[in-house]
Design goal:
The complex is a heterodimer.
Chain A lengths: L8 E3 L10 E5 L15 E4 L6 H13 L4 E3 L19 H7 L3 E8 L2 E8 L4 E9 L8 H17 L8 E6 L2 E6 L6 E2 L6 E7 L5 E8 L2 E8 L6 E2 L7 E7 L5 E8 L2 E8 L4 E5 L8 E6 L5 E6 L6 E6 L6 E2 L11 E6 L5 E8 L2 E8 L5 E3 L6 E6 L5 E6 L6 E6 L4 E5 L6 E5 L13
Parallel strand pairs in A: 3-4, 3-5
Antiparallel strand pairs in A: 1-2, 2-30, 5-6, 6-7, 8-9, 8-31, 9-10, 11-12, 12-13, 13-14, 15-16, 16-17, 17-18, 19-20, 20-21, 21-22, 23-24, 24-25, 25-26, 27-28, 28-29, 29-30
Helix pairs in contact in A: 1-3
Chain B lengths: L2 H13 L30 H27 L3 E2 L9 H16 L4 E7 L6 H21 L7 E7 L10 H7 L1 E8 L9
Parallel strand pairs in B: 2-3
Antiparallel strand pairs in B: 1-4, 2-4
Classes of the chains: A mainly beta, B alpha+beta.
């Protein structure tokens, strides 16, 4: 297995639509407890006429999967000698570059034809024509991302995660932004503080805390228009840290009042059935996150003193510690999120008074540290279960960063202002089609 | 003119105020003392004095009420990640309890806050705990729970935007606000 050396990979695109400059770096090898060793196929995006912006988006999307060794960066023409006869690919040139896979995009009526070439076998492995709206259509970029994600699935067996978005908080408002940093849009009004946005599993609804006068309900808001509602049980006091259950009808949240902070669930589809899961007495319980099978909830509790990560059955029984700690020595732990494959929970934990991103594997209860420089907090999983986005101030201001837990590569997402409390969506289907997580 | 003639003229002018012809130039002999001015006519000023006295008392009462309101509004602070009432703040809370006892129509809102270290979401719960702790203390001093509202802003409303220990300490606080019955506060006995 090839051990990956530390290299800096600035990624710039020349395409007019892709105005973001995303600096990609490898995190320094001070990742405690994680061993990065990589063996992945070399992939080249073949040059071609037209489709400059789509080709640039696809290349970047495939790069961001971290599953390929991206080779070359071609526009209309490729390396010398690569132009074969019209319609043919000079496999030899690309093989000498180290590529095993080649991605070819050609214009088709109303869309694009994508081909995945097996460079060694000198043949086409996959081909499909995808309809695309006009470049000026607001859905254009997301449709190109869906093409990238399908190509990634052909090439690696796992769909890419380009057709996803983040919710995050900036200046007290919830924003939505594409996974490549494009198309930021405010979703809540100015003048009312909104916090802790989260996605429903189908990506069509969000929930967040609307803080007014020191109190606030959890607002459940359809994202494609429709009436927002206050979650049942969350109409009075201060209701925080919402989380959707995988069944599409349950919302968990924490409710703070003069008796303390405790976790509740409610049915937001039928608008009923609020249930209390924790009875804190002298401890606070907050930040629930569901396991993907909906059977368990990890959460934060101060029952031992500083907040730590616990787990319970989804009805509130069988509460126990999830992420072990040394009493009196380990720092506060917060903001857990259960991975899409159910195997791990990511959270942040104070190390020398600075939060860092940690993982705990649910089965063995082993804790590993992922970051070490600056303050790193509020992590959220990508739908591939290997990328984690989080907030870091390592550049001097709070920004969204993304780490790949398999290669250790870290990239920054540019947001219009300082960012907090990110939430990463599943792969987003079209408005009329349910998405495949 | 000589000064003595001036004085004589002034004296006779005064004496002539009550009417009559101006006197002839007198011989130099001891001048009589000028007649004292007539006593002012008697005036009934008791109503005026009462009004002035009332106004003075109202002013003082308003100043006392303002001072009492300020005492009700005094903030208290907390140690990092703690919601315990510090012993230094107990006197402040005792005083609030006394004022609330003397003014049974007053209702207050306690807002808990945190500095911006620590998790954003956890700080909402921490601010809530800080407000609840002050409410419990006031209840233990006899204030009816129904008169006190508890809210939290977490780290969202810092008093001091700085990033040093002084700013953090100022931001870890409870704020107290009178929400009803705050006019004409009277002092505790």
């Amino acid at each position: 297995m090839r051990r990956l050396s530390v290299i800096l990979l600035p990624v710039l695109t020349a395409a007019p639509l892709a105005a973001q400059d995303t600096t990609v770096t490898k995190d320094q090898p001070i990742r405690i407890g994680v061993d990065y060793a990589v063996n992945r196929p070399g992939l080249v995006v073949l040059p071609g006429a037209g489709l400059d912006s789509a080709r640039a988006v696809v290349r970047r999307d495939l790069d961001y999967t971290d599953r390929f060794e991206m080779l070359g960066d071609f526009a209309a023409t490729g390396p010398e000698g690569s132009a074969g006869q019209a319609g043919s690919v000079n496999y030899g040139i690309y093989r000498t570059m180290g590529a095993q896979l080649g991605v070819e995009l050609t214009a088709a009526a109303g869309g694009v034809t994508a081909r995945l070439h097996d460079i060694s076998g000198q043949k086409v492995r996959n081909t499909q024509t995808f309809p695309l709206p006009a470049e000026t259509d607001p859905e254009y970029r997301m449709e190109v991302h869906r093409v990238s994600d399908e190509i990634a699935r052909w090439a690696s067996g796992t769909a890419g995660l380009a057709a996803t978005r983040f919710l995050f908080v900036s200046n007290g408002r919830v924003y939505r932004i594409d996974s490549d940093g494009e198309q930021a849009v405010a979703l809540t009004p100015d003048g009312v503080t909104a916090l802790s946005p989260v996605w429903s599993p189908d990506g069509r609804t969000m929930a967040y805390t609307r803080l007014e006068g020191g109190r606030g309900g959890v607002i459940v808001q359809p994202l494609a228009g429709g009436t927002a509602q206050v979650a049942p049980g969350a109409q009075s006091a201060l209701n925080i840290t919402p989380a959707f259950g995988p069944d599409g009808r349950t919302l968990a949240f924490a409710r703070s009042d003069e008796t303390g902070t405790d976790i509740f669930t409610a049915n937001f589809v039928d608008r009923c059935c609020a249930q209390r899961l924790t009875v804190g007495r002298f401890a606070d319980n907050l930040s629930p996150t569901f396991s993907p099978d909906g059977r368990r909830i990890a959460f934060v509790s101060t029952r031992s003193g500083p907040p730590q990560i616990y787990v319970m059955a989804a009805n509130g029984t069988d509460q126990e510690l999830l992420a072990p700690f040394d009493y009196g020595a380990t720092g506060a732990s917060n903001a857990p999120e259960w991975s899409p494959d159910g195997a791990r929970v990511v959270f942040h934990r104070d190390v020398s008074r600075s939060p860092q991103i940690f993982l705990v594997d649910v089965a063995g209860r082993r804790v590993t540290q992922l970051t070490s420089s600056g303050r790193n907090e509020d992590p959220t999983w990508g739908p591939d279960g290997r990328h984690i986005a989080f907030i870091s101030d390592r550049t001097g201001r709070r920004q969204i960063w993304i780490i790949d837990t398999e290669t250790g590569r870290v990239r920054q997402l540019q947001t219009p202002g300082a960012a907090r409390l990110p939430a990463w969506s599943r792969r987003l289907g079209r408005a009329t089609v349910a998405s495949n997580p | 003119m000589r000064a003595s003639s001036l004085m004589l003229l002034a004296a006779f002018a005064l004496a002539a105020c009550g009417g009559g012809n101006p006197p002839e130039e007198p011989a130099p002999e001891p001048t009589p003392a000028p007649a004292p001015p007539p006593a002012p006519a008697p005036v009934d000023d008791s109503a005026e004095r009462e009004r002035l006295e009332r106004e003075r008392m109202e002013r003082e009462a308003a100043e006392r009420a303002r001072a009492l309101a300020a005492e009700l509004g005094t903030m208290i602070n907390f140690e990092f990640d703690k919601a315990d009432i510090r012993s230094a703040d107990q006197g402040t809370l005792d005083r609030k309890a006394a004022i609330l006892a003397a003014n049974p129509n007053v209702r207050i809102r306690i807002a808990g806050h945190a500095d911006d270290r620590g998790s954003d979401e956890y700080n909402l719960a921490l601010g809530n705990r800080r407000a609840a702790a002050a409410k419990r203390y006031l209840e233990s001093k006899g204030v009816d729970a129904a008169r006190i509202e508890v809210v939290s802003y977490g780290e969202e409303r810092p008093l001091n935007p700085g990033a040093d220990e002084t700013a953090y300490a100022q931001n870890r606080r409870d704020e107290f606000e009178v929400t009803a019955g705050g006019d004409n506060l009277v002092a505790p006995q």
